[in-house]
Write a structure and sequence with these properties.
The protein is 42% helix and 16% strand.
Length: 361
């Protein structure tokens, strides 16, 4: 990668590898970005058709470059552009259709019964699979190694099945058609790396690094955020039956993996997640209206993660920079610097952001 917007890629690469591997470090990994850079952004009008926000690589990369031109990247922050077709694009590759809006993209359910999971096959000519590769390929050319084009949010296991059937229907499937659900998860497991590997080859840099779309992660080799948001609807016993084996197989084939734990209803599954030896790290999304990642009520989650020897991704955003700093200091005091990744909102000035860097360096 070129040093157009980042001073020292090598140092960022090294720090991410130290975080993934839980190696001793002099400070936590930190994503710190400041507004106010005097760059040269390109005038860009918001399109009338919301699909442009997802399907036009020139618009997406120009928007990313404008952000880079007007922001400073400090500590371990790095620039990247997302070319997502929503969270769970495998559902489109398997026959689904998207609904485009300015702030989200959703999938329309298209299967009438769980028995239809059996018909899932890799189709190299699926229109959304072909289109997604085309826009990623073009975006990578437009980025010119100034910033990363991320691996999109393919998603896995029960979340894809839920998208194809609709969440309400799928709840009944899990209860009434367990064998079909097991078979569906098995098929999705088999397809995941067919898509992942092709996308990985499109975006990997010449130095072997890739970035995954979710949660600003970077690493050597094959990395991914893994998840099962549907787990909020099932018991720990069902999670161990339907989800844990799938995640374990997936993590075994990845060089680095980060689990996305989404909301209070998912906390009950942390013990099962910590049993997956190959999982490297956990990211905690606190839920709408809940306190941020520095809230002490969340410490029992972090305690389990640390006891299992895994890394933590923690978002600090309540209050202002002084509050973020105090939360981060408390977390470092409790858990040490090793295996901690802090993400902060954008700082209003370079000086304000530099204070946060100086605090930990």
């Amino acid at each position: 990668m070129k040093n157009t917007y980042v001073k020292d890629w090598r140092k960022i690469y090294d720090r991410f590898e130290q975080w993934w591997n839980r190696e001793e470090v002099d400070r936590p990994l930190m994503r710190i970005i400041a507004r106010g850079k005097k760059g040269n952004p390109v005038p860009l009008e918001e399109p009338g058709d919301p699909s442009v926000l997802y399907l036009d690589p020139r618009y997406i990369t120009t928007n990313c470059r404008n952000f880079c031109e007007t922001h400073y990247f400090l500590a371990d922050a790095f620039p990247y552009a997302d070319l997502n077709l929503g969270p769970g694009s495998m559902a489109l590759y398997l026959g689904g259709e998207p609904g485009f809006a300015r702030d989200t993209l959703w999938y329309k359910e298209f299967l009438d019964s769980p028995g239809e999971f059996e018909k899932f096959r890799f189709d190299p000519n699926n229109k959304w699979w072909v289109k997604h590769q085309e826009i990623i390929r073009e975006a990578a050319e437009l980025a010119q190694d100034d910033f990363y084009i991320t691996i999109p949010d393919i998603v896995e296991n029960m979340d894809i099945l839920s998208a194809t059937r609709g969440p309400q229907n799928f709840c009944f499937d899990v209860i009434d058609e367990g064998e079909a659900v097991h078979r569906g998860v098995e098929i999705i497991d088999g397809l995941y790396f067919t898509y992942y590997d092709a996308l990985y080859d499109l975006v990997k840099s010449s130095d072997g690094m890739v970035s995954y779309t979710a949660f600003a992660i970077l690493g050597t080799g094959k990395i991914a955020k893994v998840q099962c948001d549907f787990c909020a609807m099932i018991s720990p016993e069902m999670f161990r039956e339907f989800v844990q084996p799938s995640l374990r197989k997936q993590c075994q084939r990845l060089n680095h993996s980060l689990y996305h734990l989404d909301g209070p209803d998912a906390i009950k599954h942390v013990p099962a997640l910590m049993e997956i030896e190959e999982l490297d790290a956990l990211q905690w999304t606190c839920g709408a209206g809940k306190p941020d990642g520095g809230f002490e009520k969340w410490y029992p989650i972090y305690d389990q993660v640390r006891a299992a020897g895994k890394a933590l991704w923690i978002h600090l955003y309540d209050g202002g920079p002084a509050d973020w700093a105090e939360s981060a200091k408390r977390l470092v005091k409790r858990y040490g610097k090793t295996g901690l990744y802090f993400l902060f909102p954008d700082f209003s000035s370079l000086g304000e952001a530099q204070k946060m860097v100086n605090l930990f360096e």
